[in-house]
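QA checklist item 7 of 12: single-chain prediction sanity check.
[x] sequence parsed
[x] length recorded as 184
[x] structure emitted
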Amino acid sequence: MKEEIIIAGFGGQGVLSMGKILAYAALMEGKEVSWMPSYGPEQRGGTANVTVIVSEERISSPILSRFDTAVILNQPSLDKFEDKIKPGGTLIYDGYGIPSPPRRTDIRVFRIDAMDAAAEMKNVKGFNMIVLGGLLQVRPLVGIDNVLQALRKTLPLRHHALIPMNEEALHKGMEIIRPIETSE
């Protein structure tokens, strides 16, 4: 099993954190992992993406040009990465940031209205955990227990009180993700 993933959006959406938590959880499960962030010079509002590779075998290179799965959180990222998903791959997108939906018909497409759910839950900072929950519902690469352990390891101690809210957000994402029919 090897899964090559890109998570892309604007800075401030928790893109890099989502990738880091996924990678850390996979590492805790004894899997081979690569985590490679990329972001513009802006701290918030600029583009950000992270590639994560989770594998049972050694990873030969962290550099990817094609992806098995893309998690896309804004229109510029969809425009940039949609064509780089391997045929038969998976695209997950948040409907809030994407006015022009995906057009590919040779991939599986899922929509998650994570921004709306985060606002409904009064937990806007939980947006990325909602998205991560949706990803893990569609592609169960790591167990939720290990994601929660990864949160404990990566979050500063002063934020550990937020872990129950993050767990709730993960489960919400698993509930609300929906497949989108694509026609050939």
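[x] summary fact logged: The chain has six helices and seven strands.
[ ] second reviewer sign-off
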